[in-house]
Design a protein that fits this description.
Helix content is 24%, strand content 15%. With 66 residues, the chain is α+β, with helices and mostly antiparallel strands. A two-stranded parallel sheet has the order 1-2. The longest helix has 9 residues. The protein is elongated, with a radius of gyration of 13 Å. The mean pLDDT is 81.
């Protein structure tokens, strides 16, 4: 993660592909990606590496379940 931050130093935007389980909660991205999002010196755009899941297919945290 530190190498990514160093490489992104001075950038206007960092685009980060995410993968993993389709969830909507802070733990939906891994530790390294979370570190980059939290410490980047520019805006970070998280995109799905594959087509994103539909809203009905996403796992929601318990306090947001319908």
């Amino acid at each position: 993660e530190r190498e990514v931050l160093e490489a992104a130093d001075g950038c206007d935007l960092l685009i980060l592909a995410r993968d993993g389980e389709p969830r909507r909660e802070p733990k939906s991205i891994g530790h390294y990606a979370r570190f980059v999002v939290d410490h980047a010196g520019c805006p970070v755009l998280l995109v799905w590496a594959q087509p994103p899941p539909g809203i009905d297919d996403m796992r929601w945290p318990p306090h947001l379940r319908r």
